[in-house]
Amino acid sequence: MFGFHYRLERSAIGLVAFIVLVASIGGLIEIAPLFTIDETVEKAEDMRVYTPLEVAGRNIYIREGCYACHSQMIRTLRDEVDRYGPYSLAVESSYDHPQLWGSKRTGPDLARLGNKYSDDWHVTHLNNPRDLVPQSVMPAYRWLLRDQLRTDDLGDHLRALRAVGVPYSDDQIANATRDAYGQANPDSPEASGVAERYGADTNIRAFDGNQGPLTDMDALVAYLQVLGNLTQVAHTTQQAEVE
Ligand code: HEC
What we know:
Blueprint: H1 2-9, H2 12-31, H3 37-40, H4 52-63, H5 78-84, H6 119-127, H7 143-146, H8 154-163, H9 170-174, H10 176-183, H11 191-198, H12 216-224, H13 233-242
Bound molecules: heme C.
Heme C binds at residues 61, 64-66, 68-70, 106-108, 110, 113, 116, 129, 133, 136-139, 141, 220, 224.
Pfam families: FixO
Transmembrane segments: 12-35
Organism: Devosia equisanguinis
């Protein structure tokens, strides 16, 4: 072994060629799996995109740094699946730019949070977590109920997401501001377009408890209630594994 190295070091070209060969092994191991990424990532025929209101909520989630304490990725370990539900699949994050998997859990994982609590619970909890969980160390986000949601730029947000691969239609982009209003105002004329463009299962209700002008709370709660519900593929495939 040392004899080989000794001889190699005396040949500049041989040494360089050998270094390139050894270094490229690591590169190959990293790059090769990406060639099969289309087969590796599961398919989810039933997957829908986030509505403009949910996109706005997701932006607030990022703005407020919720990801610093909450992950959105359930690992394949037994205790995680027992606690949070089916483990996360790659396809479930495919419309998330950036992904919010997180690396720290001061609070629980939120990947399957949708429909776990009522809107009312979320509003009270976000306004002051200690009203519901006395020992909670989560900060109070009191301004969410007070601050008006900005919606005039939502079309641009959808357009930016389309540029990185989220399949928004021209119709969805053109109606983004209108749909954001309609999703939180079920009695308004704008509401019908939301189900038309995003599917009949879309949540359409006054998320912060009041119809009328939108608040940041409307958007954030709309987003929290759809977590884990863009597709049911994790439930159906993992149910099949158990049986
Ligand atoms: C400093 C860390 C921290 C930050 C930042 C934080 N949380 Fe939490 N969160 C917690 C802790 C701890 C809990 C568990 C106690 C509780 O329910 O209040 C929790 C619980 C929750 C729950 C209930 C989850 C469940 O399954 O019971 C939700 C929903 C939630 N947080 C949402 C948010 C959102 C949205 C934000 C950003 C606006 C946020 N959190 C920011 C620490 C944090």
